[in-house]
Every structure is written in C-alpha cells, then in structure tokens.
Fold this sequence. Notes:
35% of the residues lie in helices and 16% in strands. The protein has helices at residues 4-10, 36-50, 75-85, 98-105, 129-140, 159-163, 174-185, 207-213, 227-233, 248-261, 307-318, 339-350, 360-368, 383-390, 396-399; strands spanning 16-20, 27-28, 31-32, 54-58, 89-91, 112-114, 145-148, 170-172, 194-198, 219-222, 264-266, 270-274, 289-292, 301-305, 322-326, 354-357, 378-379. Helix 2 crosses helix 3 and helix 9 packs across helix 10 (248-261).
Amino acid sequence: MKTIDQLLADGVAGQRVFVRADLNVPLDGTTITDDGRIRAVVPTVAKLAAAGARVVVASHLGRPKGAPDPAFSLAPAAARLGELLGAEVAFAGDTVGESARATVAALADGQVAVIENLRFNAGETSKDDAERGAFADQLATLADLYVGDGFGAVHRKHASVYDLPARLPHAAGYLIATEVGVLRKLTDEVQRPYTVVLGGAKVSDKLGVISHLMEKADRILIGGGMAYTFLKAQGHEVGTSLLQEDQVPACQGYLEQAKAQGVELVLPVDVVVAPEFPDLKTKAPAHPTTTAVDAIPADQQGLDIGPESGALFASKIADSATVFWNGPMGVFEHPDFAQGTQAVAQALVDSPAFTVVGGGDSAAAVRTLGFDEKAFGHISTGGGASLEYLEGKTLPGLAALED
C-alpha cells in the first residue's frame, strides 16, 4: 500500500488531489456535536496543501436516499475543516455537477475545497457495478491523484471508496495508515493478556467479531444492550430490556465455546433499570434503581451495567496488556445511565495497557464524558470498519489502495 509520504516525495504541487475523508459527523441541526472525524483528516489535508496540491475533499454524511437533502449537507463540516486548517475552504453545492467543476477549477496551489455529500448521488452506494463505476468516472474528472483517508468508510464497496482508486494513482493517507497499524496490534502482534470489551445495542451486530475474537482474546467483557440476550441465555429474567430472542441460542453457544476454549467471558452481575427509556433531550430524571442480574423486575428495562459490574470490568482491564473497547455499557447520553460507560473508560485510562477505543458510540462517549483523548492509546474513527477488520474480513476500501 503506497503511503501519502511516497506521493509527496514524487511531488504534488499543482496537482488536484482527491481526498476521500470521513466527515460523517453528528449534527444537531447545523451544529456539529462531535468534530473528531474532521480533526482526524486534518494532518493529511494540511500536508497536501502545504506541498502545493489543490485538495478536493469528499465524504458522505448520514443516509440520504441518493438525492440532495439539506439535512445532510456537508456545509457545516466544510466550515469546521476551514477553522481547523486556519484557511478558507471552498464548498461546492453538488458532487460532480457545475458547482463542483467550477469550484475545483478555481483552486490555486495549496487551496482546499469540499464537495457536497457523495450520497446525494445514487451511484455512490449503488450495488450495480456499472452505475457505481459511472459515478466514479465522473469523480475522476475532478482529480489527478487519489488519497484514501476515510477509514470509517473503508468497509463499504462504494464508488468513492472502492471504484475511484482504480481510476487514479492512489495512496493511503495518514489516518488510514495509523488505523491499520493499530488494528494489526489487535490481530497479528497482540500483547497479552488481551481483553475485549463489547457493548452497544444488538448482539447481531457483534456476532462475527465475537466468533473471531474467541480465537484471539483472553477475556471478552459484555455490557450494553447486547448483554441482556446473553443474560437471557443464562436463564435470567430480563424484563423489558432490549432482547434479541432469536440470538439466544447463539449466545448460549458462545458461553459454551468460551468455557471449552478457556476464554473468560464476563457478563454483568448487576444492572441499572428504569420503568421506561429516558428522555435524552430533556435529561429528565428516569427513576433508576440497581438490581442484581438474577432479580430484574419483569416491568423494568436494563439501561446500564451496575456499580459492581463496573468494578468487575475494571478489575479485568487493570492487568491487561492490550484492551479493545467497542460499544457503550448503557445509555451514556443520560446522566442516570452513564456510570457504567464512565467506569470502563476510566479503567482504560488507568490501565498501563495499549488501549484502543473502537470508534462509533464509544468514541462519542469518551468525548461526551469529558475524557482526555490523549489518555487512550488510540481512538478509532471507524466503529464498523474496525469490527469488520477484527472479524478478518477484507475491507474493499483497503483492498483498493493496495497495488
């Protein structure tokens, strides 16, 4: 895989460099609530601009349905990128239309532009190779070189991620190079004991990674909404908690497999419950109570791991040499159910281990709860991409960057 430094060594002054970034940031209206993904691409964009490239930054945001939708405009992200770069960033109001062509044509050496949300064009996400390829052909007219730096999208076989690199000389940006290096430390160069902490809503989202990590990890700690399907598999009442009934047999299988292979699979011993899901806008008190996992009331739902579970998980993390964490332990957006996620994050900070926060909601939780990002070994920008890499899958966006 060619690196951006090799591209820079060959010279990029005066050339149009298409940077496929991941600017898929959360928005409250037009206000960015977490700019972590924008900050992550700044080193690549800044280095290219400093070398005299004419930088064309592209990304998706959200899930528009193949047509323009103002709610998913990249304009706020473009403005924030300009603030972080300390330079004006031009913004094109379309992807490959008149505005994009004119905006890119107007760039001088060292200047940066952002084109509108790639998913405003149906060709970006099309499963039809010809339609996707046609869009990639149009994108290719905007650039001379391609730099892939949107790690959060490399598991998608999309036009700007998979097809476009085949049409232009290409290289991996600094973010992708860093992410791949970190993930190798979680797969091929693991320091032990190796502890994996998994949370989030659905067991089905994590089945592949649990299966694969069962062969690599020493301990797997399970919290969040997915824990209740495992608790049901142990025969516990889970009340109105999130439950994937159809996954109970799979969870029973993992419990048996872990025991047979000597992998420590750790579930919560207590949980925080409430009568209903909390209001995340008003943050109104949710009347939480803490109960042992074998005493969850039938009319209550679990919304966080309890304090004993938090202490248990922290003790398992404390003597680890490598820790990977993906998925919050509860509804961390509400103060009544943030303590479990807080306990896990603090345990990672306190641990001497190489610690990796696996993107997505886990990264958002770290920032929401006020942790110093530098206190962790690495905070990934791609939750789904990280998980698929750890499952051993081939990621289209990485494969496309290989020569």
